[in-house]
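If you are new to this repository, start here. Below is one unmodified record pulled from the training split, so you can see the exact layout before writing a loader.
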Amino acid sequence: MHGRIIAAFMLMLAASCWTGCTPETMATATPAAGLGEGEALVLGDISDEAAETIAGTQPLADYLAARLTEHGIARGRVRIAPDLSTMVRLVESGEVDVYFDSPYPVLIVSRKTGAKPILRRQKYGVAEYHSVFFTRADTGLSSLADLQGQMVAFEEAFSTSGYMLPLAHLLEAGMNPVEKSSPVVTVAADEVGYVFSTADNTTIQWVISGRVPVGVIDNVTFSRLPADTQSELAIVAETEAVPRQMVLVRPGLDPALVEAIETELLAMDESEAGQAVLDTFLTSEFDEFPQGATPALGRMEALYELAKER
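And here is the target side for that same chain:
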């Protein structure tokens, strides 16, 4: 049975690579001039596939720059950071002006630099998402309480859906999540062990193959698994929903420029040219936070503080 599940999963991966995977490159973005020189608006992202991310983001940078000339913007550029600490430095130093990410890394950058969220980004057409704890249907695990003494695979330590949301969910349930060095380390009866897989695909493979009994991915990724694979899996628990991605602007930008950026992003889906750029950026639209940016980030801050207090 498990061999059939693995085969189906590998076919899914092969199909996705047929349409979207490219060889890994070492491409990096050109260093950007500061806005003080009136030259470049710099968009930032975190990625280990720099060339692919730049290709998807540069059209958006060009689109915005062409519409912001009255604010002294001559061109758009893209900066890709390999990790969260580098992005913090780039925003803090003014080398990145606009940063796109999910709520947890956005919170960290905001706390450390004073940058402010202004809009939601509906990446892949998704406004909000949440985390799901899942297992093979034959494990007998059916509730959050069943995770006591079990090993769980998270994605990576700066992921919203693959770390902060599920970690806080366990803590709010009164459980004791403890990081482990590998999937084969013993987990005590009063613990929920967790390890980092570094990728959703790896998490799925680990669960299917029995390397770990439970994994965590976001609900959108789970819903897109092949039907045969989903039928052999079971969702154990689900977290609350949060914005899929946010748009963060660095401190120190001219408020008139920030307002203009916001206006242009909100209107992009209303024109053919804007929609074409959105498609390249894997985004359906930018929109306002339904209850404002402060509550949206505030809930993530509460979860972050809960995790810190352990």
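Two things worth knowing about this chain: Confidence is low (pLDDT under 50) at residues 1-34. The CA atoms of residues 39 and 73 lie 5 Å apart.
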